[in-house]
Amino acid sequence: MLLALRDADSDPADFPSDAFMDEPDPATYRQARLSPNWRQWHKAIQSEIDGILQPDRADPVTAFPPGSTVLPSKFVFKLKKLTDGSLDKFKARCTTRGDMDRTFYEEAETFAPTPQLTTFRLLLALCLKHRLMPYHYDVSQAFLQALIPEDERYYVRFPKGYIHPKGYVGAYMKKALYGHRTSGRLWSEPAHRFMTDRYPTLSRSTYDECLYIGWIDTQLFIVLIYVDDFIVACADELSRARFHTDIMSTFQATYSGVLNQFLQLRIDVQTETLPTGESYPTRIELSHERSITDLCAKFSIDTDKQPPRSPMTEGLSLPIPSPDTIDRSIETPLRSLIYSLLWLARTVRPDIYYHVTYLAQFCHQPTVEALTAAKRILHYAYSTRDYTLAMAIDSAAPQLTAFCDSDHAGDTATRNSVSGYCLYFHGMLIDWWSKKQKSCTALHSTEAEYVAMSEACTSALAIYNTLTEFFPSDELITINVDNSAVQTLVTQRALSSKLKHIAVRYHAVRNWCQGPLRKFTPVWIPTDDNQSDIFTKALPITKHGVPIIDKFTARLLDIKDRRVKLVEKLRAAEAQQLHAQQQQLQQQQRQDKIVLASLQRQNLIG
């Protein structure tokens, strides 16, 4: 398949008819050499090696000193595409086998901070609330801009098969290389130093070390660092221009403009323009449409077949794997599929989160039933691939609103309950999860709801602390629960004797809902209005469709016309079935009247 070339840095002479052959990414250097795109891969390889062998980064060697530790390396090839499927660039990353470095490292020496996805969504929500435009910068070969201490430097052998034009066989690394255990930590230090030196008015978050928030000339300024990506949110062009100058003079970076692609996510920022000419975002949509399509091709999903109307059959309970049902031949594809679905569910598809986490427990004991169920989820995700996580500010909504729920003894294998939770910031969904209550086995539904509420408050409190660290507020978090007994238990002063056997860690929720440490206001809601119900069990088709669209996905997912028409079709079918049943009942009543009249006439004649 031929696709149009979109890489401005590539030489058109290397491409036949300004096109390239779309193929799977090569796994080895040999496969790259045999690829029809070898000229493009070769150019990407030379660009990577030239970047490594810069004088301040590494010293090339033609032979390694006797007795020295030499780490092998390999090329990781990636044909990077934009969200619309067009080519971005050919990427060849030289990575070392850091696991073969026998030097002992403490945990503190290898830890590298990485922001949570919740923090990323919170940043987008803050952009909508404070009218900040998000911009994207990508640092090229970021790890190679981090200096290695002299006592930790190492030799690296070039990948097998690669021959350098000058006869070099490897290099003595002065700066970090991808793949080594300490590279992430080494890179985080110059990145943090850049922020503190250039922007002393910004404060580093205590709860997420990759988030920086502050004010520059009375203007709010936010920076989120995700490895080699800098997401900058600001209101005026002067602040962005200053940051642009600073980062370009410090690192080798690429400016991508307004944020439109991040972590394979397609990001659509809808804006309005002020009379002054400055723009601000009014709505942000996140989607994974292209990734879902690629996954269907990878796992051979027949998308022409009738798609399932829900991710999982209601009440599905797969049997406990036994030696006869475990199939190790499908372990790798099952793991790959589950991990891919987990990424979709954790980023923009909370409607499949419970279903994927349920199947994740079969990764170490793979069965055909589990693989079939996982493919059903992927097929459902493909049929609803136009779903987007839509974010728009709701000024009437509280700052933070949480929902929690549980399914008592929902796991039929262990009889553990399942907790579900979701959190809104001014009406925008920013956090959700579904997990088993592994540390206890609830004796009744109230206990399961009590534990679920405690876990939900813990997660919501982390977001609350991050916000109040920079934006002080006394507003309490509204937490919705559909069990009135739990609402009473967390607000009364005396601890019920029926809950004294629960672990102490879960009783912290009582301090958060009353007294001087109060942070939450518990509110009872009907079960049908509990938006976290979808994270506790596989709902029936009617509940996963109509109520979820009417209540849950009003903020969670932006449903396109095709999905709405499907729901209307389901409603019409149900109405038609009900009408047919009523007609059948009326006809039966008429027949009964005829029979009764006939019997009465016979009695009169007799």
Automatic annotation (TrEMBL):
Keyword Transport in record: no
Regions crossing the membrane: none
Top-level lineage group: Eukaryota
Keyword field contains Coiled coil: yes
Domain (Reverse transcriptase Ty1/copia-type) ranges: 64-271
Coiled coil: 556-591
Keywords from the named record: Coiled coil
InterPro entries: RVT_2
Name this protein carries in UniProt: Reverse transcriptase Ty1/copia-type domain-containing protein
